[in-house]
Amino acid sequence: MIIKEWNAIKKRQLAPVYLLYGDEEYLLHETKQLLIRHVISEEEMDFNFSLHDLADEASLEAAIEDAESFPFMGEKRLVFIDGAMFYTAEKKKESRQSTEVLETYLESPAPYTVLVIHVPSEKLDERKKITKLTKKNATVIEAKKLTVNDIKGWIKSKVADHRLQIEDEAVEKLTVLAGTNLFMLAGEIEKLALYAEGSDVIRVEDVTLLTPKSVEHNVFDLIEHTLNGRTAKAIDLYHDLIRQKEEPLKLLALLSGQFRLIYQVKNMSGKGFSQQQIASRLKVHPFRVKLAGQHASRLSNDHLKTIMLELADCDLALKSSSGRKEMILEMFLTKLPGFTR
């Protein structure tokens, strides 16, 4: 996790150069916002902040010239370089810029500037000279997808920013109801913090009262109800989702994705892979693998194959029907209990 780097930024223990990359957009966004808040004041934004987007015709030379300029009426300049694809193996236009001027700057960065380089990519090309030089002379922050335990730690950290604590059970409930999207979780934490004003602790009852279930979790509940023979509850939940204007085709896609994951988890677990290994190989969050594993033991491979074929038939029917499309998926849900062991 990047909590250590965040804490240093909050204390204004600033590096002269930061390199940001990874596939967790929220962490990238939050790191940029922290730097903006703690490097320069709001009054200095017009004078001492600049953004150079290499994907939008900006030049690396102009960005470095900016970084070498003295701050105006302040202690620091903050210079962002976005779209630095020359750190990757991809053959995009912005990856063909000459990096010599940046290489020279990295050898002796300006002490009065914080230069932030953002690489919109999951990984860096470690073979490149510019990558090696940056890793040697800059603070590199990888914003990667968090593990379930990391997300729980991140939730506690965000709650602590509001000078509050949160019960362990409340953390668990929040991830179950809201999912693992950090933007969504951040919004829910803001709401819970406002509700808990005057108290010291966010409790599980608060989370249950205020946090709506994500669509993905409602789909998990649909499967849970049907596989346990609670067809009436599943149909009631499905009708609620339709009343909330959720499209049957979207719900079908989520159901198909979940059953495909159940099938993959079942097969990989049978070959001895751990939940973490499965998540890494399938490039899905470990939390989703955990949920899929709970269902996998109730379904045979043959049943799962039959379900996938039924879902394919539903997809064709939904895309070709001009009648009441919501009935097509409802019929599928009534059949599901017959596929359990």
UniProtKB/TrEMBL annotation:
Keywords: DNA replication, DNA-directed DNA polymerase, Nucleotidyltransferase, Transferase. One of its GO terms (molecular function) is DNA-directed DNA polymerase activity. It comes from the Bacteria. This is DNA polymerase III subunit delta. InterPro entries: DNA_pol3_clamp-load_cplx_C, DNA_pol3_delta-like_C, DNA_pol3_delta_N, DNA_polIII_delta, P-loop_NTPase. Pfam families: DNA_pol3_delta, DNA_pol3_delta_C. It is an enzyme of class 2 (transferase). Residues 216-336 form the DNA polymerase III delta subunit-like C-terminal domain. It catalyses: DNA(n) + a 2'-deoxyribonucleoside 5'-triphosphate = DNA(n+1) + diphosphate. The keyword Nucleotidyltransferase applies. Its EC number is 2.7.7.7. Coiled coil: none annotated. The keyword Iron-sulfur does not apply. Belongs to the DNA polymerase HolA subunit family. Residues 18-144 form the DNA polymerase III delta N-terminal domain. The gene is holA.
